[in-house]
Specification:
- It holds the Pfam family Peptidase_M16_M.
- This is NRDC protein.
- Keywords: Metal-binding.
- The protein is an alpha+beta fold.
- 56% of the residues lie in helices and 15% in strands.
- The chain has a four-stranded antiparallel beta sheet, with helices on one face.
- The two termini are 14 Å apart.
- 19% of the residues are buried.
């Protein structure tokens, strides 16, 4: 089991940064779909989660091939690229996701409660409005570059691994 949390103070600076981060993680997951398929067949699991403070990478499975899968994820992260068509597809999916959260009273109530309790949190309404105003491909590229330059990493490796 390998878990790394790539923490960046950049994410919580604005609602736009939060939306750009969500877009970035979704595109990264989309890009990894095909190359990581063989790992899935070999019973290796991975998950990319857009946490509040950074990207969480979770990988688990048999230890002899796990570093290869983790390296694949890191390679795609470091050489991040996307096409305009993928960008449009992911932003449309995010609009639907945000909207679905907003129309459910229980999830909206949870979001409002967390907005009151947590300092520096952006509401789902703020994120949805930001996304509806439109994001640019250049803004995402600039955000990803800034995100990768301001990272703090916490990690946990558990299981049958050598130091």
């Amino acid at each position: 089991y390998v878990r790394f949390h790539l923490i960046s103070p950049l994410i919580q600076q604005s609602a736009e940064n939060t939306v750009l981060f969500d877009t970035f993680v979704n595109i990264l997951s989309h890009n990894l779909g095909e190359p990581a398929y063989e790992a899935d067949v070999a019973q290796l699991e991975y998950k990319l989660v857009a946490g509040e403070y950074g990207l969480i990478i979770r990988v688990k499975g048999f230890n002899h091939k796990l570093p290869l899968l983790f390296q694949l994820i890191i390679d795609y992260l470091s050489d991040f690229s996307f096409t305009p068509a993928v960008f449009e597809m992911i932003t449309e999916q995010l609009k639907k996701t945000y909207y679905n959260i907003l129309i459910k009273p229980e999830t909206l109530a949870k979001d409002v409660r967390l907005l009151i309790l947590e300092h520096g949190r952006w509401s789902m309404i703020d994120k949805y409005q930001t996304l509806m105003k439109g994001l640019s491909i250049d803004a995402l590229s600039a955000f990803v570059t800034a995100f990768k330059s301001q990272l703090f990493v916490e990690g946990l490796v558990q299981g049958n691994f050598t130091s």
